[in-house]
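Quick log. Single chain, no ligands specified.
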Amino acid sequence: MNVVLLPIKRTDSGILSNMVSHYSQPKGFVGRNICYAVMFNNVRYGSIAGGSATRFLPNRKVIGGLNNGINNIFFHVEKMGGEYPARWFTAMVLAAYRATIEIDWMLKYGDAPLWHETLVEIPRTGNCYIKDGWTLVGQTKGFTCKRTKGQGTDSWSGKRVWDTKNLRPKHVFIRQVSQPSTETSSQEINAISNEE
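-> predicted structure:
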């Protein structure tokens, strides 16, 4: 039994429901994104999405260009009957996500993925990322940004509105890409699931 990720649209009712119950309650995604339903044994446990790399992150080195980085912009799984279906299930999902999105990113956008990044809001520790081999490289100041109607200062639609008072610091995690092959990803997923 392995984690299966099914491609979904960002408007999928399941991911929208997960966004409402997620601690950060995102309103949507800006820029590139690829979303998946997280399945195990034909049961949906949640959603995960990758998107555009963040322009500025403390201690993160851009390899190639920003289009070569994939930000794990959303990850939400829920226990069924009070438990996950396997030990280290969240790390198994991350391994499956990396293997899957590295191939899908290249196919959809034509840019070879060279690294993964994610932000984990404090006081959460990001233990599932650590278990999957990600490295904690820094912490953000906690500024938040949203887009509203109006002309922005960049090529994106909408005007950026920054909140620099109600800070929400986040841990910054980075991981280099794996080899985008089915054989490697299956080995990684099975190695994580067999750990004690």
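Residues 180-196 have pLDDT under 50 and may be disordered.
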